[in-house]
Amino acid sequence: MAFSHENSKGQTYYLHSKEVTLKGGRLQRIYYFGREAKEAAIDAMPDGYIIVENPRTGLPILKKG
After folding, report:
1. What is the model's pTM?
2. How far is CA 65 from CA 2, 9, 47, in A?
3. How far is it, in rounded angstroms, from Cα 58 to Cα 37?
């Protein structure tokens, strides 16, 4: 079951993760929220992160905490 978060506006978002290649060739894991749980959805929030919400749009964002 994908990790989900309900924002202050009552909308549910699901946490996803993927590896991207940066310009220098280095791999980096990124985390993002989506309205639907897709293939890249993950089951738990990574250690050391907190959820903050964009006050204007309500979009949740992971932030190192």
Report:
1. 0.90
2. 21, 23, 9
3. 18
